[in-house]
Amino acid sequence: MMGLVDGFLRRLFLAMGVALLSAAGLSPPAFARGAPDTFSPLAERLLPTVVNIATTQTLKPGMADLMPDLPPDSPLQDLFKDYLSKNKNVPHHVTALGSGFIIDPSGIIVTNNHVIDDAEEITVTLNDGTSLPAKLLGRDPKTDLALLKVNPTKPLMAAHFGDSDHAHVGDWVIAIGNPFGLGSTVTAGIVSARNRDIASGPYDDFIQTDAPINRGNSGGPLFDMDGNVVGVNSAIFSPSGGSVGIGFSIPSNMARQVIEQLRQYGATRRGWLGVRIQQVTSDIAEGLGLPGTQGALVADVTANGPAAKSGVENGDLILSFDGKPIGDSRTLPRVVADTAIGKTVNMDILRKGKKETLRVTVAKLDDTDGTAPAAQKPKPAVPVKPNSKLSQLGLTVGAIDTDARNKYHLGGDVQGVVVTEVDPDSVAGEKNLRPGDVIVEVQSQPVHSPDEVTKHFEADSKAGKKVELLLVNRNGDLTFVALRLAEG
């Protein structure tokens, strides 16, 4: 009884305080939204919008693919070999389970790409138990999203996308899905973190939640307390295979845009800038004389691409794009991808300490993967005499001659100075430099011989520089590497 009275008094004093502040023309302070007494009404309303997805794939593997990993002296070895030899030509059907949610009463369903990847048949089971064959409308491996279509006999209940930018750390959320194939299951938790990069793709920007998400929840929705979809459950971190309170959802604002493109075109249409960028580390910032580590550093510019046509150069630091600040290298690809194709925007850069604004017209990203040419057979290379100054950093370099090109598979257009040896326990080794890397520039100055590299290092060391910034070509990709100079 006392607990009820205390609760009533707290709510009364809170209401009186808000009223007094409002009467005085002041805004009341923001309070966190309390935990609901029950999730039951919300779950009951949302369950019909979530579906279970089953996929079937036929495999014809050889014996080696099916043979289990058994000890060499196991008596089961002969048993499995005998069984597999008799059934090696029999097709094997593999079934996978996942989740999805309806976004249109006509039967349009969102799920994960990895749920339906390589599927020959897709079956969607509604909350009432109805099973329907599904057709794939489009998919996007880069964001792990896919769009399906079923043909129901009557309109279906649909979920609605919310604004994931309003999903704050600490907000309550619920996940609905098909964990371990058990069927529709509701779990609850909070938003644990935002903007998570789990190295699953170029546009990682996951919402992290502790709402229990398990195998089979993939493709299911993450709802806010208003019943809007703020995320698409996509991945878990789990040493055990079950929920440990670390799940990841694709933000609804990203998903909505991808889904609209899949629905309209059957594929994504992303903006393209034509640059290769890298993160600004503290060492690189010091080497470039930058005030901090914000921005995206341009390591390479694609010939005839939008950035090249607008005058972007290697070493430019992109600070903002189309009015949106670029806090780090992860932000730029997402912002560019979301920009309308053909749109001309302002791009603020920092070049050699001076701010400039460039105008760039966004082109369409071509997702076609190129095939790398076959490597040539290496030939013996002429040994290169190590340099004592560079050897302090664990680095040995040589000229790019015919033998070096053959040994390290360097194209005829590759210019600079080749790395021939790296001490793994040195400064260069810590920065992952390796034989075959080509030093193109030292402190933004092109180099063509080992002597030029040596002179740069010696001069900068005598001048008191602490960091030497190299532009390195590795297999055609340019990247900046900052080496901290040894004192003395």
SSE topology:
Layout lengths: L1 H22 L16 H7 L3 E10 L3 H4 L9 H12 L4 E13 L3 E4 L1 H4 L4 E5 L5 E3 L1 E6 L4 E5 L22 E6 L7 E12 L9 E4 L11 E3 L5 E8 L10 E5 H14 L5 E2 L2 E5 L2 H7 L7 E6 L4 H5 L6 E5 L2 E2 L5 H7 L6 E8 L2 E8 L1 E2 L23 H4 L3 E5 L2 H7 L8 E6 L4 H4 L7 E5 L2 E2 L3 H13 L4 E8 L2 E8 L4
Antiparallel strand pairs: 1-2, 1-4, 2-3, 3-7, 4-5, 6-7, 8-9, 8-11, 9-10, 10-13, 11-12, 12-13, 14-21, 15-16, 16-17, 17-18, 17-19, 19-20, 22-23, 23-24, 24-25, 24-26, 26-27
Major sheet summary line: 7 strands, antiparallel
Count of alpha and pi helical runs: 13
Assigned CATH architecture of the largest domain:
Beta Barrel
- Rg, Å, rounded: 29 Å
Gross morphology: elongated
Give a verbal description of the structure.
Helices cover 23% and strands 32% of the residues. The chain is an alpha+beta fold and 488 residues long. The protein folds into 4 domains: 46-69 and 78-149, Thrombin, subunit H (Beta Barrel); 164-261, Beta Barrel (Thrombin, subunit H); 271-364, Pdz3 Domain (Roll), CATH 2.30.42; 388-484, Pdz3 Domain (Roll), CATH 2.30.42.10. The strands form 5 sheets. A 7-stranded antiparallel beta sheet has the order 5-4-1-2-3-7-6. A 6-stranded antiparallel beta barrel has the order 8-9-10-13-12-11. Mean pLDDT is 83; it is low at 1-7 and 369-387.
